[in-house]
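Session log. Operator J.P. requested a structure for one protein chain; no other inputs attached. Running the standard single-chain path with C-alpha cell output.
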Amino acid sequence: MNYTFLSATILLVLITDPVGNIPIFANALKHVAPQRRPWVILREIMIAFVLLLTFMFVGERFLQVMNLSELALQIGGGVILFLIALRMVFPPPESMDPEQMEEPLIVPLAVPAVAGPSALATVLLLVSQQPERRMEWIGALCVTMLVSAVVLVSAERIQRIIGTRLVVAVERLMGLVLVSVAIEMMLRGIKTFAQQLHG
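Structure written below.
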C-alpha cells in the first residue's frame, strides 16, 4: 500500500482527528484558566509528536523484539482503526471522571486523544513499508501536528462559528472515511496473507 506525502498527511490528520478531539479537549480543559489553555494544548501536542516520532525510529526494532510481521501490524492496525472510526460515527456517552478537575498531563490528551493506538500503528506501518521515505513521513507528521495545534487552539472559536452540531457532523463524516480506510487496510493485509499461503 504505497502512500504519497499528501495521502500520508491526510491519513494521519484523519486518524489524529483534531475536529473530533475538540469536545475531548474542551471537556478536559474546563477547569483550566482560559489564558493557560493554549499552552496546555501545545504542550500535549508536543508530547504526542515526540511519542509518534520516537515510534517512527524505534518502531521497526520494537516489531523485531515482539516478533511481529508487517502483515500482522497492517491487519491489526486496520482492526484498531475500524473500532476507532466506529466510535467516531457512534460516539459513546461521556462519563465524568474526578481527575478531570485537575490540569491534564499526557493522559488523556496527548495519549490517547492525539497519539492513540491507531496513530502509533500508522506511523509504524508507514516506516516499515517504505523506510527510505522516513523524512517524508516525518514531514507528514509535522504537518499533522500543526493542523491539530491550530484546530485545537482555535477550538472554542470554531465551535462558536460553526456550532456544535456541525462539529459532530464533520466528526461522523471523518469517521465514515476512516471506516473505509480501515477496511481497505484489512482487505489488503488479508489478500497478501492469502497470496503467501498459496505461494
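Operator note: Residues 164-198 form the longest helix (35 residues).
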